[in-house]
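Q: What would this complex look like in 3D?
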Amino acid sequence: MILLLKATYYEILKIFNRMRTYIGFATVTLLVPMIMYLAHRFGFDVQDQALRALGDSVMFVGTLVNGLLVSYYLMNVLWVHFPFFIVLVGGDIMAGEAAAGTFRVLMTRPITRFQILTSKFIATFFYTAVIVFYLGIVCIGSGVMIVGGGDLFVFDKGILILSQNEALFRFLIAYGLAVVVQMVVAALTFFFSTIASNGIGPIIGTYAVLVVSLILSVIQIDVLDTVRPYLFTTYFDVFFAPFADPIPWREIVQKSLCLGGYIIGFYILSLLVFIRKDILS
Amino acid sequence: MNQKLLHLSLLIIMALLLGVMTSLESQTLSDPVIILGKVQAPMEAIADYSVTVTVSVAVPNLRMPDKELRLFYQQPDKIHVETDGFAMLPKVGLVPSQINQLLENVKMTLKSTPEQNESGAYIINLQHLEAPSKMTTTIWINPKRWTLDKVLMNVPDIAETVITIQYQKFEGFWLPEAIKVYLNMQQSIPAMQRPSIEYPVGYFGGSSGKEPVSGIITLDFGDYRVNQGIDSKIFE
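A: Here is my prediction, written as structure tokens for the whole assembly.
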């Protein structure tokens, strides 16, 4: 167990010693405040459109356009765009060692294949959690600083306006669930990384699966209804569930368990491949 | 004889004066401008006030927490609202000067006097001359305390709004204690769904938004501070 923890610690160090690890952090650091500034400078007429039905009877005080609203909309990057930063690191974690030929050296040490793979898997999970929460902190932090705080305006059976404190609590749950979602992507790319012997293959492979799954999930053709429950992307929208009122805990637990199943499934597959793998170079 | 004639003359003059005054009085109360002037007159003594307002919204497909805000008013028509985030307020009845806005570019007609209706109020019709639609407003004036008790705003084929105002006497002034805004809209707020895998940015599902819908906005007023002086800078 101590060996596993030590190995995990060194794997985390290895991840954070690579330049590519910081591409995601740098992009988030630059892009998010820029989007916040643009939202603050030019705004968008969400409230006019949504509350038009109330007509001339009421006047609106304050605005619904604030940092929390922009952060909420920015969560849409978690569908397709943000996974790139996950696969960029996850794709290289096993394949990189294979390509560099360092597995052979590693296996001369008193550490089992199970421990090597598990430590890398935990390190990948750690990176995923850190970058997702970093996105959340930068979004909400820069949003509140640049655009301002306030009530959060969301769609849920019409219009739902959450108080700032309530919204921050919902964001915390949402980003926690986003970690689970992104971890599925990480686990998939980890599995491909275990098979491949270079870092590019897992990135392309994961993205191909992700995009195809998303397309199959989005296209409204009846025959695909039978396929959708088996696509992990079907459960990706779980991170928007905390913004409903009341919070649909049952749905969140069900979808999280499904996503957890995929994570464990990809981990077991990776383990089976790696334990049986001939490491010749 | 002369003294008797003098008394008789005085009696006739007094009767005539009484008749003229009574006639003038009844003429005054049939003039909507004078009636609304009586509503405005007591408010002239209010230079400024601030009040805490709690706003509750009960409109289908619109859920928001109760909102507490601080409303600042200064003569003649300055309003400033301080609140965290977002709130909705009725356009009419919130502060005394808003009755002036109601009277801009309107043709006024007295629809009913207190003797002619069960509510015991002066009912005045306001025909808006510059409104894009055929908007009409009807107001109910309480003749006992000269307050605006009810407003009905009708925009044909779009919405009908009824605003009822309850008052409390504070430092000699009748000021709003509670306002209820009953909204009857021809179009509802669509039942938009939260983002999902099929519709990543949310979508207009369920109700199309074309159905008529009713809702209530309630405002409770408290913690009045009248004529204590408010810095004009906050209205800038």
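A: To summarize the key features: The two ends of chain B are 74 Å apart (CA to CA). Residues 28 and 186 of chain B are 39 Å apart (CA to CA).
Q: Very helpful, thank you.
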